[in-house]
């Protein structure tokens, strides 16, 4: 069929068509691979530039909105709060992953690049998981107070599962020439990536249900905590993006056998990860803005109360 599509209708096959069909099929597959890797390289190059701007925006926001406007002294502790550190590390790892992907697209046989990319992926997943759960702890404790400790136990397995993805590729670095062992390690690496993906989808899916339940209960009771409601709304968006990215990443290994399309789908998944991290950034900005607004409202109420209780002069 591929040979017919290449030759086109109305044209005659050569006499040695049976011999040329495998060659044409291989050439077409090679062209598809080259196209996929070329597009992947361009996307990663552009995405790296965008993420660099996002990192600059994050640093500027922390310096201006969280330190200067709040009249705090600039210290490492004030800058690298837990939430700031997790978001910064996640974006930095994603930037590095895109840069590595530019080189990996042209050299998929490099186990060193593959190991570094998997390490960056584990770092992104860990940063995202800890940021999401750190922001949503009050929501989980409010809805399910007896399940808070269970969530902490589940989180304890996250570093092991995420960073195990890189171990098989690190082993491959030292297996030069041993084709059979390399194939086994590659399959183990794929299985580790899928296992980490399933873990993250289940965990993030649970948080997504908690966010949705909190928003629903807040609307029904009218007793909304505006801070937590902002966390829940943005958390829903971030969870959807990240679950989608992991699903695309897992699909790349299952659906596509040719390297070009597989690499392209993995690159698209990395771009969706950026949308998830930017949603967390937007959550941070929205919560900080709401906290400032509530502080101003409290100050105005205090001034109004002092004005009404102050005795008048005759």
Could you describe the 3D structure shown?
This protein is mostly helical and 314 residues long. Helix content is 84%, strand content 0%. It starts with a helix and ends in a 5-residue tail after the last helix. Mean pLDDT is 80; it is low at 1-30.
Q: Could you give a short description of this structure?
A:
The chain has 314 residues and is mainly α. It is built from 11 helices and no strands.
What's the topology here?
Layout: H1 2-7, H2 17-68, H3 76-79, H4 82-104, H5 111-143, H6 148-156, H7 158-163, H8 167-173, H9 179-221, H10 226-255, H11 259-309
Helical content, roughly?
over 70%
The total of helices stands at: 11
Which percent band covers the strand fraction? under 5%
Order of SSEs:
HHHHHHHHHHH
Structure class:
mainly alpha
Please count the beta strands (DSSP E, at least 2 residues each): 0
- Uncertain regions: pLDDT < 50 for 5+ in a row? 1-30
Shape: elongated
Largest sheet: none
In round numbers, the mean pLDDT is 80
Query: What is the terminal-to-terminal distance?
Result: 102 Å
Could you tell me the radius of gyration in angstroms? 26 Å
């Amino acid at each position: 069929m591929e040979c017919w599509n290449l030759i086109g209708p109305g044209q005659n096959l050569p006499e040695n068509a049976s011999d040329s069909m495998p060659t044409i099929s291989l050439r077409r597959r090679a062209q598809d691979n080259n196209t996929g890797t070329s597009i992947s390289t361009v996307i990663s190059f552009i995405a790296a530039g965008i993420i660099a701007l996002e990192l600059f925006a994050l640093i500027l926001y922390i310096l201006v909105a969280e330190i200067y406007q709040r009249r705090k002294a600039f210290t490492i502790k004030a800058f690298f709060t837990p939430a700031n550190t997790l978001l910064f590390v996640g974006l930095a790892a994603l930037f590095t992953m895109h840069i590595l992907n530019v080189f990996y697209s042209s050299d998929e046989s490099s186990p060193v690049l593959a190991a570094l990319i998997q390490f960056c992926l584990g770092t992104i997943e860990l940063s995202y998981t800890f940021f999401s759960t750190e922001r949503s702890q009050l929501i989980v404790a409010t809805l399910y107070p007896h399940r808070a400790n269970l969530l902490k136990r589940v989180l304890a397995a996250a570093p092991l599962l995420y960073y195990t993805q890189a171990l098989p590729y690190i082993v491959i670095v030292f297996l030069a020439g041993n084709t059979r062992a390399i194939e086994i390690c590659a399959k183990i690496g794929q299985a580790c990536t899928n296992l980490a993906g399933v873990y993250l989808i289940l965990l993030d899916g649970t948080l997504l249900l908690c966010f949705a339940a909190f928003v629903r209960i807040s609307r029904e009771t009218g007793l909304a905590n505006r801070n937590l409601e902002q966390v829940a709304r943005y958390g829903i968006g971030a969870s959807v993006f990240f679950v989608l990215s992991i699903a695309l990443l897992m699909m790349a290994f299952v659906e596509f056998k040719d390297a070009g399309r597989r690499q392209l789908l993995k690159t698209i998944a990395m771009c969706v990860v950026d949308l998830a991290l930017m949603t967390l950034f937007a959550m941070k900005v929205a919560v900080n803005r709401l906290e400032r607004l509530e502080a101003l409202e409290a100050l105005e109420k205090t001034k109004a109360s002092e004005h009404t209780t102050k005795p008048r002069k005759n």
